[in-house]
Description:
Elements: H1 13-30, H2 38-60, H3 75-103, H4 110-117, H5 122-156, H6 158-171, H7 176-195, H8 200-220
Helix pairs in contact: 1-2, 1-5, 2-5, 3-7, 3-8, 5-6, 5-8, 6-7, 7-8
Amino acid sequence: MKYLKSRDEKWSALHSIIMWVFGVFILISFSYLSILNEWLARITVEIIIGLTPFLVVLTFFNKNFDELGLLKPSLKETITGVGFGLLGVLSGFLAFNLEVLILGGYPIGYHEFQLKFTPLQLTDLVIWIAFSVIIVAPCEEIFSRGFIQKGLQNSGGVLFGLIASSILFGLIHIEPFRILPNTVQGFTLGAAYIRSKYKTSVSIISHATLNTSIFILMFFLPYYFGL
């Protein structure tokens, strides 16, 4: 594969950065909704960052939704998506353990954060998986790969788009101890997007697989996460 710049100059890295800043703004602003209801805040944030790229592509760029890569994946692409998702689990786990090794222990705030997202009951596990598969994976992939990675790629080429979007994906998770693991996982999700010839639907499968696997591991093996 040749890492060439795209000719689609209308959709550039600048638009990707603006979209990313908007995503950070929404994430911080609507986090205050968690005071009323944490699930309301989570769902609202995800839906906004998922719908905004649709509106921009349709109205500002005057393009159709296919430009976001929402095309039906083949069976082979589906399997590839699952494979990259599992790779993301492994790579993220290794990156976090490297972080723990360097710091000499779990980062400050890690246990409190992890307890908020660890399913303790089977019903919790089902809810978290459903939320991840139905809302989180589609919305975050449309935002991070379908819009941001594509814009970065249009300006700097495929490799630049992959690396830059992975870093932005890590940074948007805000908590310092999540940045490195999520950057590495963003790289695997971006690679799935490239491997499938820019089908966001495939990276959605990867993201859903990654999150589902992590929640299952946290439910059955919480001690591996320091709990």
